[in-house]
Amino acid sequence: MSRLQTRFAELKQQNRAALVTFVTAGDPHYAASLAILKGLPAAGADVIELGMPFTDPMADGQAIQLANIRALDGGQNLAKTLQMVREFRQGEQSTPLVLMGYFNPIHKYGVARFIAEAKESGVDGLIVVDLPPEHNVDLCDPAQAAGLDFIRLTTPTTDDARLPKVLNGSSGFVYYVSVAGVTGAGAATLEHVEQAVARLRRHTDLPISIGFGIRTPEHAATIARLADGVVVGSALIDQIANAENDQQAVDGVLQLCAELAAGVRGARL
Amino acid sequence: MTSYRSGPDANGLFGSFGGQYVAETLMPLIHELAAEYEKAKLDPEFAKELAYFQRDYVGRPSPLYFAERLTEFCGGAKIYLKREELNHTGAHKINNCIGQILLARRMGKKRIIAETGAGMHGVATATVAARFGLECVIYMGTTDIDRQQANVFRMKLLGATVIPVVAGTGTLKDAMNEALRDWVTNVDSTFYLIGTVAGPHPYPAMVRDFQAVIGKETREQILAQEGRLPDSLVACIGGGSNAMGLFHPFLDDQDIQIIGVEAAGHGIATGKHAASLNGGVPGVLHGNRTFLLQDDDGQIIDAHSISAGLDYPGIGPEHAWLHDIGRVEYTSITDDEALDAFHKCCRLEGIIPALESAHALAEVFKRAPKLPKEHLMVVNLSGRGDKDMQTVMHHMSEQEKHA
Questions:
Q1: CB-CB under 8 Å, B29 with A129
Q2: Active-site residue, B382 included
Q3: How far apart, in whole angstroms, are the C-alpha atoms of residue B197 and residue A200?
């Protein structure tokens, strides 16, 4: 079983949802970002999404755009992001880590080289925002053949006719983008999320994680009652943006992560 | 013979370029748009409506003008200018805007968004939105707003909301990112009116088709005036819509030499340019695989050109393909060469060209003198230069200071 399968199976046994945290690799710079990454499992993150910085994050709101800029200004690149995963994996073998980003840096790095190094460094899966199933041959097919999960985004605009096409070739979990919009913007109504999860369950047995617009432990708890995973990104990144120094950034992210984890863990009690 | 005019394939690919590299939220919209466009293409009513607005609103056909004084000055090839700058709103951009707004109306969309660099596409979009009574939001980088204030004012007069984009360097690529973010947020109400032959399929093919009226008219006009097809075609390229519009109807005429002119800015060797084909490598941005200005890590590098309309780090995927297979020759012209051509065109023909079009003219000044007098060369004069007064004045006063 892959790390993602194992983790979601364990949590199912415990009757609780996963807290999936997103931070951008190298934000605000390599050392502080690595400290955050290494602290996340102990702070209660069940699955980690690590953003690969890109100059033109077209599906992201202001918070993650700025995180990308901070990371790039700090000298982050794809090779360093893979190195960060290697360092993370030295002490941590059970928490799944998924790289998330846009296709161009991978395309430039070379798809075969990227897949090989991602696998070797301890990456479990990939989320690539601008690779819909129409472009499976570009990365999804070879990544899965190499044993990396490929996590698909499904959205409110993905109708029943299209869902099978999107889910076909998905592995690890399914990420439901609960609002049509960019990251960090508005949140969906509970009713919408409930219906969306029910609709997705008719099409797939994969765990379903819900993201976009979830910022507080209370909100995370509410979503954790409906879905298999709760994704929080921009709220964590705001802790870095608002910090006055590295220590505050690290502490701020890990503190909020712990609060979110408490919310998720207490949700179904 | 295989045709150069049959692309893209069913997946929106020209060779290995193009495609639909967008977030899932947009995929259903793009498929819907492609289907609706296919239907419209076959609908005689749509063709009739388009022809009506092209003639009575845009002012088509635009003249194919024998530039006698340019020809004399160069002393070689016989030079014709395709006068797209005489169109309503002063550039070729309106050809595409009229087509897309009619499509938006068929689809029942109430809100139009667009990105703009020089502001010409923004003005053309605001114009057609006003004509059809639709809400219009234009994204424009802050750098471009500073250097194209007259166009910002024009858009506002036409009732559009101009949203300044501060991200990145505040130029066209940043405006396009922001327009995509708007679209992903307002999926039901909004039609994204892309201004060039780039973006996810069907945009590159659709914009090309709406701009191909340039080349179709040129064909008829040159046959009427000269009794034969031209020997060469020249057009400037940012995203590449005016060039594709002129080139496409001639791609299968193998004897015609076709030349696209990229913006070399301060020179390709300086790194400050906008020449994606001559100074970039393939990558994926804004929904398509094409040549991009990017660093070793695949991060997009900001383009530079004196002409805001060419200031884009990518190029339409069909151009990338035509470059790859060698059907079209892509060359480049620096800021200084373009300015020199700008002044010559003003003095010799009494036509103030857009700085974008001045890049094509500069290429003509290089080539035409070496060609025989019977060589027929058609240049796309894609826009007029009124919008560039501030830029040219600034540049002339800088030169005086250094002189």
A1: no
A2: yes
A3: 36
Tens digits of residue pLDDT in A202-221 = 999 999 999 999 999 999 99
Q: Which two tokens stand for residue B95?
A: 């050809």
Other CB atoms within 10 Å distance of the CB of residue B359: 36
Q: Of B217, B276, B382, B387, which one is the catalytic site residue?
A: B382
Q: Which residue of B has its CA nearest to A138?
A: B21
Q: Which residues of A touch B113 (CB under 8 A)?
A: none
CB of B112 closer than 8 Å to CB of B129:
yes
Which two tokens mark A69? 């800029």
ipTM: 0.96
Contact list in A for residue B29 (CB cut-off 8 A) is: 157
What pTM value is reported for the model? 0.97
Show Cβ contacts of residue B398 under 8 Å, excluding neighbours closer than 6 positions.
Answer: none
B294 shares contact with chain A (CB less than 8 Å): yes
List b or e across B278-304, with b for residues whose CB sees 16 or more CB atoms inside 10 angstroms: bbbebbbbbbbbbbbbbeebbbbbbbb
Chain B residues within 8 A of A59 when measuring between CB atoms? 23, 25, 180-181, 184
Q: Which pLDDT value is given to residue A187?
A: 87
Cα–Cα dist B182/B30, whole Å: 15
A66 close to B (CB below 8 A): no
Q: With the C-alpha atoms ordered B227, B241, B322, B304, is the resulting torsion angle positive or negative?
A: positive
> Locate tokens 């296709």: which residue?
A103
pLDDT band at A268 (very low <50, low <70, confident <90, very high): confident
pLDDT value of position B169: 75
Which among B28, B284, B299 is the nearest to A103, CB-wise? B284
pLDDT in tens, B215-272: 999 999 999 999 999 999 999 999 999 999 999 999 999 999 999 999 999 999 999 9
pLDDT (0 to 100) of residue B168? 74
Instruction: List CB contacts (< 8 A) between A53 and chain B.
Output: 299
The 3-state DSSP class for residue B112 equals strand
* Active site (annotated) includes residue A141: no
